[in-house]
Write a structure and sequence with these properties.
- This protein is mainly α.
- The protein has one domain.
- Helices cover 80% and strands 0% of the residues.
- It has 15 helices and no strands.
- α3 crosses α4, α4 packs antiparallel against α5 and α10 crosses α13.
- The radius of gyration is 21 Å and the shape is globular.
């Protein structure tokens, strides 16, 4: 009985904090999103955007949606491979991944990544400490294109703006620091784990500190196991390359759907940069941020027509939102869950996650 009472006590105590946090972040995010929408409408020719949208190619639009979902399916299959030797079926991995994408899109906090581990524990009995490192590795693999972009900058002849260079260096620094931390744990395990545990304990509430040491040890051990499998990492990089290719194909088809001809090489480079920009916070539903970031990259760096970029993102933004909401909801139903139930699972853990992220 005591074991059951504790989660309820923690959850009920966290609920007001979580509700206030979400309300504050949502309000702030929507305010920022409104400013971005205003800025977007000020710099594009609204008449030109409307004319392009009036001639939207429905077939290409539908095909772009299939490719968009396909890119996430490939990432879900990559995550499933990282989870081995745990046995998770492909439909289960894809379903959980699509729910996580839906939550990340909807919430002003990154609850989707934590939801992956919680849903996997519910369906397959895999401990969070065992699956969460695979989520971390999965996200790190999505940052690898930044390394390729930095290597290609000298031969790509792009205008090297300060924000672009800062973003790429930020991502590269995160990858390097993570690798150095793992190397330190492998070299001097006990001192390194002690330092990491102490650092994490300073960031979490007092009630959670007794669980920090075993969690950090299990987390780092799983990451080391994954990093020590070159074949697994090579295969995972292959999945990443396919996902990046599908992302770029989606963008290419979306441009063609609004009668804009953009070279595939420009789309490949531009959309990869566009996706990397979303390691930074975004408003709920990415309101305004999609359009502004798209303009900065495709028009600012590559000189693509503003009306073409504006039309593409004004079409693709609501279209991809429908796809994420529909796929996430269908996957929840297939698992016998609903959105309220998942939020009640994630909510007690988010205050710790948020404080740790801060």
């Amino acid at each position: 009985m005591a074991a059951r009472a504790e989660p309820r006590r923690v959850g009920s105590g966290a609920a007001p904090y979580w509700s206030r946090s979400v309300a504050v972040r949502s309000s702030a995010g929507l305010a920022v999103g409104a400013l971005m929408v205003y800025a977007f409408l000020r710099v594009v020719s609204f008449g030109g955007v409307v004319r392009r949208l009036d001639h939207l190619d429905i077939l290409l639009a539908g095909l772009s949606g299939v490719v968009f979902l396909g890119a996430w399916v490939v990432r879900a299959l990559r995550w499933r491979r990282l989870l081995r030797p745990a046995q998770v079926s492909a439909p289960r991995a894809v379903g959980i991944y699509m729910v996580a994408i839906f939550l990340n899109w909807m919430l002003p906090v990154r609850g989707g990544e934590l939801a992956k581990s919680l849903l996997l524990r519910r369906s397959n009995g895999i401990p969070v400490a065992q699956s969460l490192p695979t989520v971390t590795m999965d996200k790190a693999l999505d940052l690898l294109p930044a390394v390729a972009l930095l290597m290609l900058l000298p031969i790509a002849h792009l205008p090297l703006t300060r924000p672009l260079l800062s973003l790429l260096l930020l991502i590269l620094s995160a990858l390097v620091l993570g690798a150095l931390a793992l190397a330190l744990v492998a070299w001097r395990r006990e001192p390194a784990l002690g330092w990491l545990t102490s650092a994490v304990e300073r960031l979490v509430p007092r009630r959670a500190r007794p669980q920090v040491a075993p969690f950090v040890a299990g987390f780092t051990d799983t990451l080391l196991r994954l990093a020590g499998q070159p074949r697994l990492l090579l295969i995972s990089c292959g999945y990443t390359a396919v996902a990046v290719g599908l992302d770029s194909l989606f963008c290419f088809l979306a441009f063609r759907a609004v009668a804009a001809s953009v070279p595939f090489a420009v789309v490949l480079y531009g959309y990869t940069l566009y996706n990397l920009a979303y390691i930074l916070p975004t408003p709920p539903g990415q309101i305004g941020s999609n359009e502004v970031v798209g303009l900065l990259i495709f028009s600012g760096l590559f000189g693509v027509s503003r009306s073409a970029v504006g039309a593409m993102f004004l079409f693709s933004h609501p279209w991809t939102a429908v796809l994420m909401v529909a796929s996430g909801t269908l996957c929840l139903r297939a698992m016998g869950l609903n959105l309220r139930r998942v939020l009640s699972m994630v909510r007690p853990h988010l205050p710790v996650a948020e404080e740790g992220a801060a």
